[in-house]
Amino acid sequence: MEVVIQPNAEKATDLVARVIAGKLRDNPRLVIGLATGRTMESVYARLVQMHREQGLDFSGCHTFNLDEYVGLPGSHRNSYRHYMNHNLFLNVNVDLRNTHLPDGAAADIEAECERYERVIAQCGGIDLQLLGIGLAGHLGFNEPVSSLRSRTRIKVLSPVTRAQNKALFTPPDEMPRRAITMGVGTILDARHCLLLATGGDKADIVARAIEGPMTSMISATALQFHPHCTVVLDEAAASRLQEVDYYRWIFENEPQWEPFRNGSNASGLDGHLVKRGWQKKAIAPVWDGANSRH
Ligand code: GLP
Questions:
Q1: DSSP letters of 135-165?
Q2: Å from CA of 294 to ligand 1 middle
Q3: pLDDT digits over 175-212, tens only?
Q4: Could you tell me the strand order of the sheet in which 62-65 lies?
Q5: Which residue, judged by its Cα, is nearest atom 3 of ligand 1?
Q6: Model confidence over 87-140: pLDDT tens digits?
Q7: Could you tell which of 34, 36, 133, 139 is best to mutate to test the pocket of ligand 1, judged by most ligand atoms within 8 Å of the CB?
């Protein structure tokens, strides 16, 4: 795992957007896993800005969202399909047919979950999975005691998640109690995981996820198993980490971060990784230590 700490939320968001943009420029057919939540709104705003001002091209990419509320059709104003359309898809040149979310209104939810896994596989798997983290430490909606090998399935939302996300519903009591979510195993299959967390309210769960023991109580701890996971934080979200000086030194000194230190080059990261022989490999089992870089 690599941990990058930025001075504030704006800079952390900008770095994440530039990593995504760099990967997309290097591979216009990138398969991107997307996340929702308040934190991601500014990442998508930045990507829209890059599309408008720098011609960032989404026409060849495929996207797969982590999750969707059960019972909400895509047309519902609180569905994640609606969130994605309005925050990103309708503001860039992505082909809407290549944007995928689980169908929360499907008559047969189990079949829908199986279909979602199949379509991800048919697209060759996810190259870059963008992640937020909930206050309960979930990835997607992998609530406490989610199996660390789980695949896309239905989950009942925990009280912490319901309290956190309720405010986004109008009226709040309309918030569904269940969601379809990629499993922890589905997420770990992505070739690169990129988690963004900002703000002091995330500091405790971020420290437990990055430096704490691995546990299904906090699904984000499973990222410690991933061969290529980058965590981007602002100072507030990083404030409870023990090894901040070590993480800072790496960002300030290791050559792969050079293009990102001064905010100049959006595609430098992958260029550098390729030069060092770290180019994309086939999906490896997550427990294969031989493939682990972080
Ligand atoms: C929802 C999503 C998660 C996301 C979380 C963070 O619960 N299902 O994938 O990580 O929101 O939300 P926020 O950015 O609002 O803190």
A1: TT--STT--TT--TT--SEEEEPPHHHHHHH
A2: 24
A3: 999 999 999 999 999 999 999 999 999 999 999 999 99
A4: 2-6, 229-234, 192-197, 128-131, 31-34, 62-65, 99-100
A5: 140
A6: 999 999 999 999 999 999 999 999 999 999 999 999 999 999 999 999 989 999
A7: 36
Instruction: Give the three-class secondary structure for 180.
Output: strand
Ligand 1, atom 1: nearest CA belongs to which residue? 37
Among the residues of the chain, which ranges form H helices? 9-26, 38-54, 80-87, 109-122, 159-166, 184-188, 203-211, 244-253, 258-261, 268-275
Distance CA 66, CA 50 (A): 23
Give the length of the chain.
294
Indicate whether residue 102 lines ligand 1 (CB < 6 A). no
